[in-house]
Design brief:
alpha+beta, Arc Repressor Mutant, subunit A, BirA Bifunctional Protein, domain 2, 7-stranded mixed sheet, 5-stranded antiparallel sheet, globular, binds biotin
Length: 321
């Protein structure tokens, strides 16, 4: 986004004279005018107020690396490598590209928009500019791939906690790790295995997408909602949400690495949107009632044949319609 510096100055919604903008940006008034044109091309609504200057009419929620870092606990911030981008194919892909083998830094990438956002099961993730949060974090675990059982669910609990700490209520979780509100899907988590760095040291990329301001989307194939539409009385800032999620993931994955999944079973169950509902899995082969998760995070479906655990992976659970 070429007009970012200008938008930064205009984001308070007040009228700014061409002269003051030119001074702040260190350019001529003609150059300011050109930047205004570019901002309009970028999709911003900028009013020209005769004899006074320019006023931004579109509400903006810019991503600022400094502000995000300020919201992160100092002990977490110290080990983090944060990259904030205007545009990227996928923040998950960017973390994979940036991750230095053997580096102890935790890579985090946040982008204003994604051109090839990835969802679970090969689907695309709608990633319009400036609307939502697109965040990926690289995580390292010791003990081989087996220690990752339940990680997806742990991340869901961490994200739900972070959103609730900022004032969202009734955050539900759809197994294994979709973030839900009564109005529909609010966000999703894509966990991708990077591989085994050395014997027993495994690397994972957790990509989190949260609908923040989005009010329309053409090709989303299920009911969805956003924080701004579900909680309109609140001012939602993508930077503050990002910082809260990074803090929560750091704390949760530390507990998970130390003691495993057990501490997360209760918090996950209390948000389970399938509990007591008639659901089907394995493309309809298994049908029954949602009974929550077992001690490793498998989903339990009660049917006439008893209770069947369903493993996270390819299988999706759906409420029977
Ligand atoms: C899902 O399908 O529910 C998971 C969606 C995950 C989307 C996020 S947005 C940030 C990160 N980068 C991606 O390409 N995907 C994840």
């Amino acid at each position: 986004m070429k007009s970012k510096a200008l938008i930064n100055l205009l984001q308070d919604g007040k009228i700014h004279s061409g002269e003051s903008l030119a001074q702040s940006l260190g350019v001529s008034r003609t150059a300011v005018w050109k930047q205004i044109r570019r901002a309009v091309d970028d999709g911003y609504e900028v009013a020209t107020v005769r004899g006074k200057g320019y006023q931004l009419l579109t509400p903006v929620d810019l991503l600022d690396a400094g502000e995000i870092l300020e919201g992160i606990a100092p002990e977490v911030r110290a080990g983090l490598k944060l990259t904030v981008l205007d545009e990227v194919d996928s923040t998950n892909a960017e973390v994979i590209r940036q991750w230095q083998p053997g580096s102890s830094e935790i890579p985090v990438c946040i982008a204003d928009c994604q051109t090839a956002g990835r969802g679970r099961r090969g689907k695309a993730w709608q990633s319009p500019r400036g609307e939502n949060l697109y965040l990926s974090i690289g995580l390292t675990f010791h003990g081989g791939f087996a220690v990752l059982d339940g990680l997806s669910l742990v991340l869901g609990v961490a994200v739900a906690n972070a959103l609730e700490s900022l004032g969202a209520q009734s955050i539900g979780l759809k197994w294994p790790n979709d973030i839900f509100l009564p109005g529909g899907k609010l966000g999703g988590i894509l966990v991708e295995l990077q591989g085994e760095l050395q014997e027993g040291v495994v690397q994972v990329i957790a990509g989190i997408g949260i609908n923040v301001h989005m009010s329309e989307a053409d090709s989303v194939d299920q009911p969805w909602t956003s924080l701004a539409s579900a909680f309109p009385g609140q001012e939602w800032s993508r930077g503050r949400i990002a910082a809260a999620i990074i803090n929560a993931i750091h704390d949760a994955t530390k507990i998970f690495a130390d003691v495993g999944f057990s501490d997360f079973r209760g918090p996950w169950q209390s948000r389970d949107i399938f509990r007591g509902k008639t659901i089907h899995a394995r493309s309809g082969e298994l049908e029954g009632t949602g009974e929550g998760i077992d001690e490793t995070g498998n989903y339990l479906v009660r049917s006439a044949d008893g209770v069947t655990p369903v493993r996270a992976g390819e299988i999706s659970l759906r409420v029977r319609s």
